[in-house]
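Below is how a single chain appears once it has passed through the pipeline. First comes the sequence as given, then the structure the pipeline wrote out for it. We keep one example in the README because the format questions we get most often are answered faster by looking than by reading.
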Amino acid sequence: MADKFDVIVIGAGPGGYVAAIRAAQLGLKTACVENWKDKEGNPTFGGTCLNVGCIPSKALLEISHKYVEAKHGFADQGLVVGDLSVDVPKMMERKSTIVKNLTGGIGQLFKANGVTPIIGRGRLLGGKQVEVTDSEGKTQTYSAENVILATGSRPIEIPPARTDGDKIVDSEGALEFTEVPKRVGVIGAGIIGLELGSVWARLGAEVTVLEAQETLLPMVDQQLAKEAMKTFTKQGLDIKLKCRVTGTEIKRGVVKVTYEDTKGTQELKCDKLIVAVGRTPNTENLLEGDTGVNIDERGFVHVDDYCQTDAPGVYAVGDMVRGPMLAHKGSEEGIMVADRIAGHKAEVNYDAIPNVIYTHPELAWVGQTEEQLKAAGETYKVGAFPFAANGRAMAAHAAEGQVKIIADEKTDRILGMHIIGPQASEMIAQGVIAMEFGSSAEDLALTCFAHPTLSETVHEAALAVDGMAVHKANRKRKKK
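Resulting structure:
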């Protein structure tokens, strides 16, 4: 039997490594088990997010946006540039450098905080024992007072479009193209599909997105989702709704996708096909039979509001439990669990978790949508303000979109904030903070915002909730 720990974390993604660091900071003897290897076969931390998800995709989104801005936007601003070209290998090299720096940084943080890294595949046994199998198949068993499961998720595979790592790829493969394909097909118009489709469309590919749902982004406030649909279409993304993919075939280097829509059987030909239909928890072979931890039919670990499983002393966080599959949600859960193990009272406010789609313009939201409030029969009031009337947005050549704030009709408490526009991912934090403190729309309306800034749209939207926006004509509000 190897050393005994106060806490063993299985998984070093955003939920796991954050939980391990926090536990160690609180004086608990902590280890973190991780099996991920980089392309050179070296152990690496950060999970999907840092290695093949959030970070590399944002690097490519940022680079591709700069390319589009230079190619199509500079001339309007009086900037004259010569012929532009895309060096995809150089672009991928920069993405890899960013990933390497960040994943290496986690190793340094483990060292600085006294977290013991254990390299191998972790498996929970009965009695809070953790079995770790290394790359050579050798096993070692560790004991812990508390175990945190944080093994994350992986892309869902669908039978009609099995990935082959070359022509048909998942979200990871879509970040590794060595050149810009002429035609790209994307199955799934969710967050991942839209972001990856945007990257390659900006760089010159003809992109077609096939989505089974009847509406684009049904989880987004539909006023903003409809605006997004118009914008993405204008940018060249061909988004086809109500499409069910029935099969794929590769012939002479071309992928033929067969799908059904309202008109019958259709066909799409592309050079690369990205399958982005969601993610599924990494819980296969994670648990021995007598752990007491329960998993549902979809592979999610059952936990309570505090991420406690059905087995005492065993917790689970992040993508493998209920709630949105978001890195920051997993991190907050990891911190909460470490705090609770150390004897502190802690919880996650699931009503104030921000969501972001890193297209251009960005979409970001927190709280409830109009559709959700209508369905619940709640009374509410709405204020909105367009970036087209914001000086900083105009100066930045980024005046698309709007900020929308929804407040309770009676109490004025903010129920949701929804943004489509420049820097939405940063600005949504203002709504999150406001909701964390139980703020009213009036609280934001009475707050002084710097001028000129994009954030003034938040101020004006808050004023507009009661028909008092200064820099736009206010509509008379109808009582709901």
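The two ends are 66 Å apart (CA to CA).

See the next section for the split statistics.
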